[in-house]
Design goal:
Elements (H helix, E strand, L loop, with lengths): L1 H40 L3 H16 L2 H12 L3 H25 L3 H9 L4 H34 L9 H9 L6 H30 L2 H4 L1
């Protein structure tokens, strides 16, 4: 295994970087959509239920089936991978945005409006900062989910460590089949741990001291 890593080190780093990049792109898009939608529906019962239900239904679609369905429409590579990852990321982000905004005390919002703030200003300047730790928890869950799903995206020629996993599985019995599969799997696990630790640090550094206490 060590000899395999030494010989393939450049390829491993390249695939690791691709894996991280596609997850980061998908998370940014999902955050923009998910937080925006959550802000629009958090106080509207019917739209809120509909949005969360739709995001939940999308999450139940098997990843291989979803990727296969996307091929005729958008082809292979990055595009179907990003679309699939965004779809799988939306539920935890939307749900946590709604929960975070709804948990802000009505008394705090009334006080802010009593100071002359508009409802939109209260939402952006009061509720959103207070809901931020909960929103980031949703993004953290989405990150772990998408790191795993991104490995399966090698099925549609997607970027990342899944290429090693699929190469190993497709060449079972050959000399380096196990090395390919294990390297891809260990890389995904390591990346998930590093990203999770990064989100812990980001949450701590971007949350006000009063909310942390």
């Amino acid at each position: 295994m060590l000899t395999f890593w030494a010989r393939r080190w450049d390829d491993i780093l390249e695939l690791l970087g691709e894996h991280l990049a596609v997850v980061a792109v998908a998370l940014v898009i999902a955050m923009v959509i998910g937080v925006g939608v959550g802000m629009l529906v958090w106080d509207k019962p019917l739209p809120r239920s509909a949005v969360i239900t739709a995001a939940g239904v999308a999450l139940t679609i098997p990843s291989l089936a979803l990727l296969a369905l996307l091929i005729p429409a958008v082809g292979l590579g990055w595009t179907p991978t990003v679309i699939a990852l965004v779809m799988y990321s939306l539920l935890p982000i939307v749900r946590n945005t709604v929960v975070g905004l709804r948990e802000v005390s009505p008394a705090i919002m009334e006080s802010a409006m009593g100071m002359g703030m508009t409802p939109f200003t209260v939402l952006v300047r009061v509720q959103l900062p207070m809901a931020w730790p909960i929103i980031l928890t949703g993004v953290r869950v989405a990150a772990q989910l998408t790191i795993g799903v991104a490995a399966i995206a090698a099925y549609v020629a997607g970027p990342g460590l899944g290429q090693f996993i699929f190469q190993g599985l497709s060449s079972l019995g050959s000399k380096n089949a196990l090395n390919f599969a294990l390297t891809g799997t260990l890389g995904v696990v390591l990346l998930a741990l590093v990203v999770d630790a990064a989100f812990v640090a980001i949450t701590r550094s971007t949350t006000s001291r009063g909310l942390r206490a």
